[in-house]
């Protein structure tokens, strides 16, 4: 992916990693459109970044995805990059769950079904562009789960697997598929997470990720140094050690 001259849609681009990416890509010379559920934070983000556009959109709302895809491709026919970033993370006690599994189901719908549905809706349009890119945001927790947030980790592992298959199926097309693998980043993905002393500062994560994108235009994965402890644990034959370290830190 060339990091300038694109028309980019970023879901969840009004906060956290999504906003950080949106602002960095906007400054790099791209036309950036952000989508999210919160009108106020969308307006705050676009006001701080003149020229950036926004849409109120809930990736968890299945019925809105096809109409949204039709509208955005009509309004922005040059759209050639989709960044599936929107996500939620919730703690779950699997030993004491309510009868209605609302947190679990909301996490699956937002983090997994949403990106799959939106990708399916936009892929025909992307395939008509001279060059296109799909970036799926997974997590280091796709590779070593945090037991405190089991469904979140499961959805990110599924996104990793889906991204591999999507990349293979699109290997002979004009559409590049990249997986962005964040470590714990200091955002409010969960309440108080921005104060986590082990989390990577957001500005440092964005800067390193952008540098990796710039220097590796054919990359399949973007992994900052801090996430490699998780990402490569199995390859180092250290999965059990890393899993225990991660979850003992949490207990």
Can you give keywords for this protein?
single chain; 251 residues; alpha/beta; Rossmann fold; seven-stranded parallel beta sheet; 45% helix; 13% strand
Present the secondary structure layout.
Blueprint: E1 7-11, H1 16-27, E2 31-36, H2 39-48, E3 53-56, H3 62-75, E4 81-84, H4 102-127, E5 132-137, H5 150-169, E6 175-180, H6 202-215, E7 221-222, H7 228-231, H8 239-250
Parallel strand pairs: 1-2, 1-4, 2-3, 4-5, 5-6, 6-7
Descriptive account of the structure:
This protein starts with 6 loop residues before the first strand and ends with a helix. The chain has helices at 16-27, 39-48, 62-75, 102-127, 150-169, 202-215, 228-231, 239-250, and strands at residues 7-11, 31-36, 53-56, 81-84, 132-137, 175-180, 221-222. α4 (102-127) runs parallel beside α5. It is α/β, with parallel strands linked by helices and 251 residues long. β1, α1 (16-27) and β2 (31-36) form a beta-alpha-beta unit. It has a single domain (7-250), classed as NAD(P)-binding Rossmann-like Domain (Rossmann fold). Strands 3-2-1-4-5-6-7 form a seven-stranded parallel beta sheet, sandwiched between helices. The chain contains eight helices and seven strands; from the N terminus they run βαβαβαβαβαβαβαα. 45% of the residues lie in helices and 13% in strands.
